[in-house]
Amino acid sequence: MKIGILSDTHDNISCAETAIDRLNQEQVDLVLHAGDFIAPFMIGILKKLEAQMIGVFGNNDGDRPLLLQKCRETKNLEIRGTFARIDLADGHIALLHGSDPVLLRTLNESGIFDLVVAGHTHRAEVAETGRTLVVNPGEVCGYLTGKSTIAVVDMPPRHAKIIEL
After folding, report:
1. Phi and psi of 107, rounded to 5°?
2. CA neighbours within 13 Å on the CB side: how many for 151?
3. Which of 86, 87, 102, 119 lies 20 to 30 angstroms, CA to CA, from 4?
4. DSSP state for residue 158 in the 8-state scheme
5. What is the DSSP string of 56-96?
6. Residues 61, 87, 26, CA angle at the centre, nearest 5°?
7. pLDDT at 31
């Protein structure tokens, strides 16, 4: 299974559209969004994804009820609160924004998950903690680092790559 990962879109429409185009080109089977959509209009942009998207709220998401409502109006997008456990035939995934470093470290070290996905820092990185692959796709918006990035993970074999857009 090929999983596309993004985070911290922060209302940057142009960068979000580029990320969506790239994920569609990569023909990912599932997209995970680690939060900070910001405004509900971003859901209208993300619905152009060809794969199902599962997301979680970030620490800067404002109108959460309207974000949820906009997702319900689409057939392929959902937001599962502040944490999502996703159980697939190819492994178990934890999805969160990552703004609580203790919780993030606990999930990474728990050994329960094959993949932990978090954003928040805006810094793209791939690491392994025991048997757990930990992926931060960086920031789609490009505001803090000057780089717009996403990640793609193949499961199996749990191989991740960061893609600069």
Report:
1. -65, -45
2. 33
3. 102
4. T
5. ---TT---HHHHHHHHHTSSSEEE-TTEEEEEETTEEEEEE
6. 70
7. 98
For tokens 């959902």, name the residue.
78
Q: What is the mean pLDDT of each run of 10 residues along the chain (165 residues)?
A: 98 98 98 97 97 98 96 96 96 97 97 97 97 97 97 94 98
The answer to whether the pTM exceeds 0.70 is yes
The CATH number of the domain holding residue 150 is: 3.60.21.10
Q: Which residues contact 16 (CB under 8 A, 6 or more apart)?
A: 9, 42, 45, 46, 140, 141
Q: What is the rounded CA–CA span in Å between residue 101 and residue 57?
A: 16
Q: Residue 156, preceding bond cis, omega within 30 degrees?
A: yes
**CA atoms of 138 and 130, how far apart (whole Å):** 22
Q: Which domain holds residue 99?
A: 2-164
Count of domains observed in the chain: 1
Picking from 9, 3, 2, the residue whose alpha carbon sits closest to that of residue 120 is 9
